[in-house]
Design brief:
Number of strands: 5
Number of domains: 2
Largest sheet: 5 strands, parallel
Order of helices and strands: HHHHHHHHHHHHHHHHHHEHHEHEHEHEHH
Radius of gyration: 32 Å
Shape: elongated
Distance between the termini: 116 Å
Structural class: mainly alpha
Strand content: under 5%
Strand order of the largest sheet: 2-1-3-4-5
Number of helices: 25
Length: 663
């Protein structure tokens, strides 16, 4: 046995670095996080119930700006410095583990489900990893408010804006702490926030794309900046505030919080997504309401803060980051995995899967990394000597998840399609349209007589289909063999040369099948065309004498339709019969559009509806992944719907006559 003096001395290890000071816990914010993530969940899972639930993200922005600035100012107050490396390392520990897990698992599940989920996945993952998703989506022309062509990681846009803010904010605070007064520190942040809010208004007034306004770091950072300004204004006053605020202050702060929460609920119930109102005052008012709530509930001792921190709300709030990350990709995966008959299961299944995934991620990934750091957490995970049976199970489970998802994600990146099925359907129609134009040009160049039907006189159609006549008027042309006085009708088999069609991308995707059913049909169709734009096109065709015997209009997918638009098209058609193709899409205005088309056709003689939505609903594989644009089989259904409408035009009730000129 060695003498004590001869014992080998162990090398001394340096003490661990003193962690950066953390601000005292703010009461009420965990519950407010639960409210914010609840708004977002309801907006995505049950959009009809809460059309303005997207404002939950702006509540998060205000809270994040307030909390992070409070942390930085408290660190400076206690230590006289701000350690940027420590701050950014803490942010990485907080954000990256859950983010990496979501990216790996969701991409692997999307690969298994297939379809359009992996379109653009390389750019999406790169944008998420480098926290520039918002600008990636802007550059790619993504539409945040469209549900038919969603990106798997669309929700990462807000995380990108926050992380960009976290990079810039400490640098700003380092400059602002040189100023003595709280007001001097708060004013520059408030000015920047007001400038961002004003830019959102200005871009909306200038007609900028809604997604550009919504995703822009310049136009949608005011919640973060104004939250930071409030933290700067309140930082010192908080430490000197009495723990017992007294009855009067309790009443004031509780009233302010209730008013702010009421304003948020009202906006969430009434504000329309992507509307001019949302950009010109909606987001700004929601930010003011959020500032009021955060200010009120974080006052020491206030009862409204304790009420928001009740156990269920606090539990959800602590896991709100994971819930936000998981819910969107899981929603798309569940929707793609379930067929149309099980659509009612998508929302509850997504909600259950989101809560489970967020809870597991929080317990076994996020918390260990935040507590020990990434490297130490990994060492603890892979060191068998320290494992209990539960730790061993967790280690094996995480190992299996990583071993499966990492290679599957690589495969997904390699096999990701360059084009969605909807884009492929539209491109197919565009190629057919270009071939049709080339054929027409070649015919003209060769000197052959055209068959476009130019110069058809509106008077050549039956007077019974006059645009001014309405059903039940009894106005019928003497030559209308289909009138009630006729014992027998002579039906006309319409040919392509009798038809001119004006439509949107749905008609464009159906063009090959329309041309197969009606060779020689004249089609003018384009992506994102509305009924308002269609009125101008029909009027121009009429003025140039290019309308044929029957006009087919397939518009309404891209926006609401006004009765005046239909009146304008009907007048331009003159006595020509009119076929209105209704719309099929998961968009708010579609039911109103289809109802208007049906009522208009019912009220006007010689106007009928081609029931495209009724024919295609529930038909497997008829539509592309967006559930809007037809595949080839869907194009056949579209052409058949037009055929049935043309047959209906020849019924005695329409009284259009059967003396149409033949080709």
């Amino acid at each position: 046995m060695r003498a004590p003096s001869q014992r080998r001395k162990l090398p001394m290890t340096p003490p661990p670095p003193t962690p950066a000071p953390r601000p005292a816990r703010f009461g009420g914010l965990d519950g407010l996080r639960a409210v914010a993530v609840g708004l977002v969940l309801c907006y995505h899972l049950f959009p009809a119930l809460l059309p303005g639930g997207f404002l939950g993200v702006d509540v998060f922005f205000v809270m994040s700006g307030f909390l992070i600035t409070s942390l930085l100012l408290r660190e400076y107050e206690l230590d006289g410095r701000i350690r940027l490396g420590v701050f950014w390392r803490r942010r990485a520990r907080r954000l990256l583990p859950a983010l990496g897990l979501v990216l790996l698992v969701s991409t692997s599940l999307a690969l298994a489900v297939g379809g359009d989920l992996l379109v653009g996945i390389k750019q999406q993952i790169a944008g998420a990893v480098f926290f520039v998703s918002n600008w990636v989506f802007i550059a790619n022309g993504a539409d945040y408010f469209a549900r038919d062509t969603p990106e798997l990681f669309r929700n990462m846009w807000s995380l990108a804006i926050e992380e960009q803010f976290y990079i810039v904010l400490p640098l700003l605070v380092l400059l602002l702490v040189r100023l003595r007064s709280r007001a001097a520190r708060a004013i520059p942040l408030a000015v920047l926030g007001l400038a961002s809010a004003a830019l959102m208004v200005a871009l909306s007034l200038l007609g900028a794309d809604p997604t550009r306004i919504y995703f822009g770091s310049d136009s949608h950072t005011f919640g973060l900046l104004l939250g930071a300004a409030m933290a700067a204004a309140l930082q010192r006053s908080r430490s000197s505030m009495a723990a017992d605020p007294g009855a009067l202050r309790q009443l004031v702060w509780s009233t302010v919080a209730v008013v702010g929460l009421g304003a948020l609920v009202w906006l969430a119930l009434t504000l329309a997504e992507g509307s001019p109102a949302s950009f010109r005052w909606g987001f700004q008012l929601a930010t003011v309401a959020s500032l009021l709530v955060v200010w009120a509930v974080t006052r020491p001792g206030v009862w409204i803060g304790r009420a928001l921190d009740m156990a269920p709300l606090r539990w959800v709030g602590e896991r709100s980051y994971g819930i936000y990350l998981w819910h969107w990709p899981l929603l798309l995966i569940c929707a793609a995995a379930l067929n149309a008959d099980l659509d009612w299961l998508v929302a509850p299944l997504t909600l259950a899967a989101t809560i489970l995934a967020a809870a597991l991620s929080y317990r076994f990934v996020e918390q260990p990394v935040r507590r020990f750091g990434l490297r130490r957490a990994l060492r603890l995970l892979v060191r068998p000597s320290d494992h209990t049976s539960r730790r061993r199970f967790v280690a094996v489970s995480l190992g299996v998840v990583l071993a499966a998802t990492v290679p599957l994600t690589v495969v997904a990146l390699v096999r990701a399609p360059q084009q969605s099925s909807a884009e492929a359907a539209i491109a197919r129609g565009q190629e057919a349209l270009e071939r049709s134009h080339q054929l027409a040009e070649a015919t003209v160049a060769s000197g052959a007589e055209g068959t476009s039907g130019k110069g058809d006189s509106p008077d050549s159609a039956s007077a019974g289909a006059d645009g001014a006549a309405t059903k039940g008027s009894g106005s019928q042309g003497s030559g209308a063999v289909g009138s009630s006085n006729s014992a027998e009708t002579t039906r006309i088999a319409f040919e392509g040369g009798d038809l001119v069609a004006v439509g949107d991308s749905v008609m464009l995707a159906s063009l090959p099948e329309l041309e197969a059913a009606y060779p020689g049909i004249s089609v003018d169709a384009a992506v994102s065309r509305s009924m308002g734009a269609g009125t101008e096109i029909v009027a121009e065709l009429a003025s140039q004498g290019e309308l044929r015997s029957v006009l087919v209009v397939g518009l309404g997918t891209n926006g609401p339709v006004q009765p005046e638009d239909l009146d304008t098209i009907h007048r331009a058609a003159g006595t020509r019969p009119l076929v209105l193709v209704n719309a099929h899409a998961d968009r708010d205005w579609i039911p109103g559009v289809n109802e208007l088309l049906a009522s208009y056709a019912e009220a006007h003689r010689g106007v009928v509806v081609a029931d495209w939505t009724g024919a295609v609903t529930g038909v497997p594989d008829a539509l592309a992944g967006d559930d809007i644009h037809p595949n080839p089989s869907g194009g056949e259904i579209y052409a058949a719907a037009v055929q049935r409408a043309l047959d209906k035009l020849q019924s005695p009730s329409e009284a259009i006559g059967f003396a149409l000129p033949r080709r």
